[in-house]
Amino acid sequence: GDSVTQMEGPVTLSEEAFLTINCTYTATGYPSLFWYVQYPGEGLQLLLKATKADDKGSNKGFEATYRKETTSFHLEKGSVQVSDSAVYFCALKGQGAQKLVFGQGTRLTINP
Amino acid sequence: GAVVSQHPSWVICKSGTSVKIECRSLDFQATTMFWYRQFPKQSLMLMATSNEGSKATYEQGVEKDKFLINHASLTLSTLTVTSAHPEDSSFYICSARYSGASGNTDTQYFGPGTRLTVL
To answer: Which of A45, A49, A98 sits opposite B110 (nearest CB)?
Structure first.
């Protein structure tokens, strides 16, 4: 079945550092790919998404490119801020499917 | 943007009692809502998919008689944890999929979650 694998956390960085959180997936066909962010004590918020190969999703300085050849959707940000501290989830929705399949989440802490 | 609310945001109950959690899409209609359970520092586990006006579809291993889901309208779904026990303590999150003619139906919008503690 479909699955998502994220890099294990926790990840701790200093403010203004470059961020990469790796995400790879297994799915048949052409899934849609998503990154969600969960701030402490809150539900998930959609951060960005891409629905076809080579699409780049971007929001709030974060970017991720749908790479079908490597089945990856790595999340990047050039300069992180303390306010980016949260748990980040990579997810996919299979072609024609209703439900999302989530990765295990990566906890990110940014120190001032 | 699309907003999904949950009520209550937290609840503490005694073992053996039932607890109802509401999930509402505030500014859009949602033909499909999803219920998830999240354990501390872990990912979300899909419990069931709820389509308006029909019975929910439960994931394997989820007890349908224990976790009753009702999706009576396009803006409201409820999850009732019946005869709750301490092992049911968790963070329950709902999401709703936009079903309007315009906009992107590929996106789920999540509620803020409900923390259930069973004593």
So the answer is: A45
The tens-digit pLDDT sequence of chain A (112 residues) is 889 999 888 999 999 999 999 999 999 888 999 999 999 878 889 999 999 999 999 999 999 999 999 999 999 999 999 999 999 999 999 988 888 999 999 999 999 9
CA distance A88 to A75: 9
Beta bridge partners of A100: A93
Q: For residue B108, give every residue at least 6 positions away whose Cβ sits within 8 Å of its Cβ, in sequence order, or none.
A: A46, A100, B34, B95, B96, B97
Structure tokens at B99: 């079903």
Put simply, the chain B residues between 56 and 115 with a CB less than 8 A from any chain A CB are 93, 95, 97, 106-113
Select the residue of A49, A51, A102 nearest B44 (Cβ to Cβ). A102
